[in-house]
Amino acid sequence: MRIGKGGCVYIMTNVNHTVLYTGVSSDLESRVWEHKNHQHPKSFSAKYRCHKLVYFYFFIHIEEAIDEEKRIKGGSRKAKEKLINALNPEWLDLYESLFD
Hints:
This protein has 100 residues and is α+β, with helices and mostly antiparallel strands. It is built from 4 helices and 3 strands. Helix content is 37%, strand content 21%. A 3-stranded antiparallel sheet has the order 2-1-3, sandwiched between helices. This is Putative endonuclease.
């Protein structure tokens, strides 16, 4: 059995919490930095200013993170809000917590 690289599914939002962006990455710290620093100016997250990390969950295998991303993206906004509220009821920016 080959063990692959792990991954993380995450949700970003804008300052007013009106837009949610769900993504997956094998390097969450770098990926969120890219969102916050407009490294991809034509992307959805840049267009809607989704710079605030409000949810993340790590998986041992990147494939699991990809499957979870698809599940979350296929769900309703209410389901996404429920995930966020369970981990982060105040919708704080969790980016700095990645470095603790």
